[in-house]
Specification:
There is one protein chain. This protein is α+β, with helices and mostly antiparallel strands and about 130 residues long. The protein has one domain: Pnp Oxidase, Chain A (Roll), CATH 2.30.110.10. A hairpin with a 2-residue loop joins strand 3 and strand 4. Bound molecules: flavin mononucleotide.
Length: about 130
Amino acid sequence: MVTLSAEAKEVFGKNKVFAIATASKNGIPNVAPIATVQLVADDTIWIGDNYMVKTLANVKENPFIALYVWDPEKKRCFQIKGTVTVKTSGAEYEKIKAQIKAKGPHYPAKGLLILKITDVFDCTPGPNAGKKIE
Ligand SMILES: Cc1cc2nc3c(=O)[nH]c(=O)nc-3n(C[C@H](O)[C@H](O)[C@H](O)COP(=O)(O)O)c2cc1C
């Protein structure tokens, strides 16, 4: 099991909008701004799907996702990679749907992407940049 360190979790918590990178089966990259991103366990991130188009199409044919978290105050950065399962029913989906609808009933809450973390890299500018840490 690959987990986020206490430091990476702290940096994660400072981010409001995440750049969610995916790729099609043929390797065409895509990046999308997504705010509904939450750490639900040390190794698991939930991503709420309201309006995804290419992101959703990509993860259905290629489950890999990458994102980064950045702390502008202390200048710390982590790249997080993992694989995604898409849920549109079941207890986990119902939970995020309720959270999203509580923020605004107009949000479609059409799905949940469950990201299991497989790799964490340091992306802080400096000597450790690019090093795999988890
Ligand atoms: C600040 C910001 C936050 C957003 N948060 C979400 C979100 O939490 N969930 C979502 O599905 N779309 C969200 N969007 C909208 C997506 O970025 C938008 O639907 C985009 O087209 C998705 O990319 P894709 O079409 O390549 O999948 C957000 C957009 C912005 C600008």
